[in-house]
Amino acid sequence: xxxxxxxxxxxxxxxxxxxxxxxxxxxxxxxxxxxxxxxxxxxxxxxxxxxxxxxxxxxxxxxxxxxxxxxxxxxxxxxxxxxxxxxxxxxxxxxxxxxxxxxxxxxxxxxxxxxxxxxxxxxxxxxxxxxxxxxxxxxxxxxxxxxxxxxxxxxxxxxxxxxxxxxxxxxxxxxxxxxxxxxxxxxxxxxxxxxxxxxxxxxxxxxxxxxxxxxxxxxxxxxxxxxxxxxxxxxxxxxxxxxxxxxxxxxxxxxxxxxxxxxxxxxxxxxxxxxxxxxxxxxxxxxxxxxxxxxxxxxxxxxxxxxxxxxxxxxxxxxxxxxxxxxxxxxxxxxxxxxxxxxxxxxxxxxxxxxxxxxxxxx
Length: 363
What we know:
It is a single chain. By secondary structure, the protein is an alpha/beta fold. 41% of the residues lie in helices and 12% in strands. It has helices at 60-75, 79-91, 105-112, 145-151, 169-175, 220-229, 239-263, 267-273, 275-292, 300-313, 328-340, 348-357, and strands at 2-3, 9-13, 22-24, 44-49, 54-57, 99-101, 119-121, 136-138, 160-162, 183-186, 212-214, 235-237. Helix 8 crosses helix 10 (300-313) and helix 9 crosses helix 10. The two termini are 29 Å apart.
């Protein structure tokens, strides 16, 4: 059993079973168990993955089976380590020493927000047996995540805090054990160069800041405390609100980077000179997400205003369509899903833009 990105339990059904599925690409199988989102109880229609397996959704029997399996898994984890880590997580408002993997701009900034007890590791360093029992901030590029997870002992993987941009949830579900209270931080602050103080992502539409962490993450409170100690804002968001914030950030990256790449300009120039174009793209992508995730929806005008305000706050950022699998690829998957089901492309502007910049995958 697994969970799909809309939070409903799902199970694999042999392809020979007579159902009428829709095609769901890899990006749609987002295990919300990884961020603590409880599955919905209402049964939904069947889907089929692009690899040919069929997936059925919903049902209390699957929910019970998932709960039983999760209880079994947790019961067999190390009681000593779990007890110690739980005591550290819930113990106080004081700083919890952390492991920080990646010593670039972000890793250095997070370390300086601590009280001096952190251990900072470079990419490829061995995980020390005497590592602090606090959070494990992973501050590497997305393409290094698989190797980083392999280095972290299994009994410590629930302590990982992901800080990367992009559509991380499918990866987390695939690479981590089901049911772990993984912490995911949506970073809206910038560090210009290593050693510089971070600049908070506060805007005229969101003066309290945009950075957010999922409330169901084990270290959500500690992440917020650490950022606050460094003068940064951090919202601790419950289930649905976090999922909406997660997609909103992915909308901003996909739309502003693509329009900027099409015109060869910066983020600020996209906002000031190509606003109608980028707003149209944002509206298209947002509607495509809502079509698959009905609980995740926006008021279009306000959404575009909020994302434009953030663009103004980072106007100097360059634009490029890169890390396709993690960024624009999440939306291109919705195009492929529709095509496989014989439906019109829900993101024609996005698809045309990707084709124009040569970013559409060949296979």
